[in-house]
Design a protein that fits this description.
This protein is of the alpha/beta class. The chain has two domains: 237 residues, 3-Layer(aba) Sandwich (Rossmann fold), CATH 3.40.50.2000; 209 residues, Rossmann fold (3-Layer(aba) Sandwich), CATH 3.40.50. It is 44% helix and 20% strand. The chain contains 16 helices and 18 strands. Strands 5-6-4-1-7-8-9-12-11-10 form a ten-stranded mixed beta sheet, with helices on both faces. The protein has a six-stranded parallel beta sheet with strand order 15-14-13-16-17-18, with helices on both faces. Helix 10 links the parallel strand 13 and strand 14. It is globular and about 65 Å long. The relative contact order is 0.11. The C terminus is likely disordered. The structure holds 6-O-phosphono-alpha-D-glucopyranose (G6P). 6-O-phosphono-alpha-D-glucopyranose binds next to loops. The site of 6-O-phosphono-alpha-D-glucopyranose has 6 residues, from loops.
């Protein structure tokens, strides 16, 4: 593929939608809602996806994968440490998640963040056709809209933040707060998961920049920037068709048999991240067993933890904490041949996840803070017979839509234990009523609606200039 390939639709994200384990391995399509939402649109428009291949490797040529042009951005070993593990995942990630771990501020991490953002912006400028639409994704690339607008004023730029946008008191800690706000304001549309996120952003713009925002509208040097919520969702048809597949239903029955036929199955599925509240969930489960209302013969928890960012200290610590708790609970409440917690630390393909969703009577989604949480939506979408109960943290974006779940405060261990109990003993008629309503809610807005709405908002932005410097 020629280096000069250009398109009128460009996605820019930290990660490519394909990944490989080493520079010589085969490319594989990455899982995830964002990839399945954007791929059909990109194929239709012969779009381009610019991103990192996931390993520190030298520049690789753009290539075609499954009808999509993928443009890899090289990131060096030092940049993986400073831009990705450092500024993105040890400064921004904890700060934007309620500072539930202390964010670290280092000037050399910031410099690396600026340099890598510039590289992504230059790539986008090179590969975007005249008046193209460029969709920039997530917290790793908040400077890209501003940099790109300077390089290419003809473009229409959308930015979408997949994680929470923090309140003023937290964001104000960031030594580079104005630079980040100005970076985001380079976009025509700045999208958030929730209304609160959008409101936080507009308040911060009013406080820390010379620009003025009212409601969703911000004026930046005479240009209109729209800041509002576009809650992301899932590919409901895909989940439903997997859930209807007899082979997957058989796999679900097998899982139930393996953990002991008659037991009530509780399930957790998360990246192994300190924001997900896995430790407090385990403590609440332990309380439930200690209360004597249940024992290893009648309840079991399957906890699937997907390894993530394993070179960052806080991720090593949460793994140790979780694994210690699992050991303690199994040691205290287990019997030979029967463990109360089945713990898997691995990434499962979507069909196996759906089999686990079908096997679970109760789904536990209890993050301390989460931008949206698609696992909660996937669980409900897979319950084709309206069975199953969802326990959901109030502090997820999903809670704003899924208010028929059993909502919990993930900091309140006793309250969570009570909620688990409520889910376990809930009469069938009430479970069905709640799950039917949850499923209807999810069906109403799928990830395709998200993509259409977001792209539609970007399309409405009026371009300021024709052409632009390359
Ligand atoms: C969150 C972020 C994504 C990120 C994903 C996996 O969902 O919003 O941008 O890709 O976590 O994390 P990783 O660091 O492995 O890309």
């Amino acid at each position: 593929m020629a280096e000069s390939i250009q398109s009128d639709l460009v996605v820019v994200a930290n990660r490519l939608p394909v990944h490989r384990s080493s520079p010589t391995a085969q490319w594989e399509t990455s899982p995830g809602g964002l990839v399945s939402a954007l791929m059909p649109i990109l194929r239709e428009h012969t779009g381009i996806w610019i991103g990192w291949a996931g390993t520190a490797e030298p520049a690789t040529e753009p290539f075609l994968h499954d009808g999509l042009s993928a443009v890899p951005v090289p990131i060096s070993t030092e940049e993986v440490r400073d831009y990705y593990e450092g500024f993105s995942n040890s400064t921004l990630w904890p700060l934007y998640h309620d500072a539930c771990q202390t964010p670290q501020f280092h000037r050399h991490w910031w410099r690396s963040y600026v340099a890598v953002n510039r590289r992504f912006a230059e790539m986008a400028a090179r590969h975007a056709a005249d008046h193209a639409r460029v969709l920039v994704q997530d917290y790793h690339l908040q400077l890209v809209p501003g940099m790109l607008r300077e390089m290419r004023p003809d473009l229409r730029i959308g930015f979408f933040l997949h994680i929470p946008f923090p309140p003023q008191e937290l964001f104000a800690q960031l030594p580079w707060r104005q630079r980040i706000l100005e970076g985001l304001l380079g976009a025509d549309v700045v999208g958030f998961q929730t209304k609160v996120g959008a409101q936080n952003f507009v308040r911060l713009v009013n406080r820390f920049t010379p620009h003025r925002g009212v409601g969703h509208a911000i004026t930046v040097d005479g240009r209109h920037v729209e800041a509002r919520e576009f809650p992301i969702s899932i590919d409901v048809d895909r989940i439903e068709s997997l859930a209807a597949d007899p082979a997957i239903a058989a796999k679900a029955r097998e899982i139930r048999e393996e953990v002991g036929g008659g037991r009530t199955v509780l399930l957790g599925v998360d990246r192994l991240d300190y924001t997900k509240g896995i430790d407090n969930r385990l403590r609440a489960f332990s309380e439930l067993l200690a209360s004597g209302r249940h024992d290893v013969d009648d309840i079991v928890l399957i906890q699937i933890s997907v390894p993530s960012r394993e070179s960052v200290d806080e991720y090593v610590e949460i793994r140790n904490r979780v694994e210690k708790l699992v050991g303690q609970i199994n040691g205290e409440f287990g019997e030979v041949g029967a463990s109360p917690v089945h713990y898997l630390r691995r990434n499962l393909p979507l069909d196996e996840l759906v089999a686990h969703y079908l096997a679970a009577d109760v789904m536990l989604v209890t993050p301390i803070r989460d931008g949206m949480n698609l696992v909660a939506k996937e669980y409900c979408a897979s319950r084709l017979d309206d069975s199953g109960a969802l326990v959901l943290s109030e502090f997820t974006g999903a809670a704003a839509e899924l208010d028929r779940a059993i909502l919990v405060n993930p900091h309140d261990v006793d309250g969570m234990a009570a909620a688990f109990e409520q889910a376990i003993v809930m009469p069938k008629a009430e479970r069905t009523r709640r799950m039917r309503s949850l499923r209807q809610r999810i069906r109403r807005r799928t990830v395709y609606d998200w993509a259409t709405d977001f792209l539609g908002a970007v399309d409405q932005a009026a371009p300021l200039a024709t052409g632009g410097p390359r």
